């Protein structure tokens, strides 16, 4: 197993530890910590003092903001210096600004918890942490060498040399142990794993939402192209076939073939309308969720009772998600449940759209069976909603969907 931290170096190779580079790396970490602490302390104290003094001319506010933001760069240097005793890279917890420019950068940084956590770390570091580093170095190195130097001035005090040597022997372990503890504290404050995971999850969620928005925009474009292009040309073709039938002799082979062609065009038109409706339902845009679900219920092979009462329209993404969830649920009921009746209920609670789809079928619905329930749950998850399913063997089945939203 590869040694990644100072603590691992002591624990995994205690006998070979003294001949490794870890004691020297740890010493460099603590010495540089003291040096940087002194320099940073002088700069930060100077900026803070200047900011307080200049408050009377407003400029001090800007100086104090600069003082707070200076913690970002101190923390960045600390994460780099951490590699002396912790080989795993400490990720930068800051998000990318939402727009280019100084104003967007300042707004993002001042609103981030990471910025203020880094400033707090700097305050802790300057308030006492570098003093502890200095104290450990003094107790483990300066004091033993001081005791060892006493007999030089007075040979009768040779026992002090033995004491100094005895104190110096464990110094590499003491320095490395404290350097490891110091590094663990630094990582916990400047690169917490929970924050790193949270940032990644947020990025994944935003990326998924952007992909869904792009997908829905493409669906709308395809719907418009089919409606305004292929569908209109088929209607025109059907009309031309009808006019041609009028010119043909009734009952003739030509009239029969034209009638068959017109019937096929009508079937294609009907299938195309269903396809367009599946790509993006126009009735949903025009009349809202309740009307769109009524249309689905009218086409359902089993009776469906629709009870959707909303005080107004909800946002487009929520409305579209609810529509396809209900459509998929009713399709599953028709295919798999053996039900003779289904009910769709929708209510808008405070900032929450609640949809329930019930049926009196045989139950036993399981997402693992590939009945579309997994895809349904994924679609709801994109808008931060959740799905609960109750489907005991023998029925009935209840699909409960909650989607965060607000009316418009």
Task: Walk me through what this model shows.
- The structure is a single chain.
- With 408 residues, this protein is an alpha+beta fold.
- The chain folds into three domains: 6-191, no CATH class; 199-279; 283-404, Heat Shock Protein 90 (2-Layer Sandwich).
- Helix content is 67%, strand content 9%.
- It has 13 helices and five strands.
- A five-stranded mixed beta sheet has the order 1-2-3-5-4, covered by helices on one side.
- Strand 1, helix 12 (316-337) and strand 2 form a beta-alpha-beta unit.
- Helix 12 runs antiparallel to helix 13 (373-382).
- The longest helix is centred in the middle third of the chain and has 55 residues, at 193-247.
- The chain is elongated.
- The model has no long low-confidence stretch (mean pLDDT 80).
Total beta strand runs: 5
**Main β-sheet description:** 5 strands, mixed
Low-pLDDT ranges = none
Q: Which overall shape is indicated by the principal axes computed on the Cα atoms?
A: elongated
Give the percentage of residues in beta strands.
Answer: 5-15%
